[in-house]
Amino acid sequence: FQNFPWAHRPVSVLTEQALLKMARHPAVVLFIDDEDSEIEFAESVLTPSAESYYEECSIQYPGFCPYQNSSDDETMDFDYSTSKHSRVKKKSFKHTMFYIGVDGADCADMLREHIGLDDAVPLLTVIDFPKQKLVTMKYGDEITTDSVQNFVDAYHSGNADFKPLKPYSEKC
């Protein structure tokens, strides 16, 4: 069970279906130029974080939970024990998705417009619609496997520099 093969890839390109899932789950989105080499790069820097996150939360593949037990509160009894003497991880479970936002694609452009993000690429973000907040990596910071992991860890531990999202008017 530990080495359960990924039924889906841990990182996928932003689609309309992904936008619907984002209404319920936070998502790490790396916005990049529409070039094969950029898409490969994005996949290579996001995948290690996504895989270790899914493994740590015992999620077999991204997106498995919306149908399996669709409870809208996103602390889905995955909270590892919060008692002081427990050795287990203390962060509450946030089912985070990992996406590549391709510049010029309708979904990526719509999402940027909806939350007021400029067109800079590459741009690493965590967009959390359920909590109405957003984090972006400092522009100019190098995007590497390690910096992505640190960014995702900071988000999950609550140590990121959150900005409120604009009021959620209509679904993207």
Structure in words:
This protein has helices at residues 16-22, 36-56, 65-68, 106-115, 145-157; strands at 12-13, 27-32, 97-102, 123-128, 133-136, 163-164. The radius of gyration is 16 Å and the shape is globular. Strand 4 (123-128) and strand 5 form a beta hairpin. The protein has one domain: Glutaredoxin (3-Layer(aba) Sandwich). The chain has a six-stranded mixed β-sheet, with helices on both faces. It starts with 11 loop residues before the first strand and ends in an 8-residue tail after the last strand. The longest helix has 21 residues, at 36-56. 32% of the residues lie in helices and 15% in strands. It is α/β, with parallel strands linked by helices.
Summarize the structure.
By secondary structure, the protein is of the alpha/beta class. 32% of the residues lie in helices and 15% in strands. Strands 1-3-2-4-5-6 form a six-stranded mixed beta sheet, sandwiched between helices.
Summary keywords:
172 residues; Glutaredoxin; 5 helices; globular
Contiguous low-pLDDT stretches (5 residues minimum) are 65-91
Q: Number of folding domains?
A: 1
CATH superfamily: Glutaredoxin
Principal-axes shape call: globular
Mean pLDDT over the full residue set:
80
CATH hierarchy, class: Alpha Beta
Q: What is CATH's topology name? A: Glutaredoxin
With strands numbered from the N-terminus, the spatial order across the biggest sheet is 1-3-2-4-5-6
**What string gives the helices and strands in order?**
EHEHHEHEEHE
Named CATH architecture: 3-Layer(aba) Sandwich
How far apart are the termini? Answer: 37 Å
What is the helix tally?
5
Gyration radius over CA: 16 Å
Strand segment count = 6
What is the helix fraction of residues, given as a range? 25-40%
Biggest sheet, open or closed, and with what strands and sense? 6 strands, mixed
Question: What is the structural class?
Answer: alpha/beta
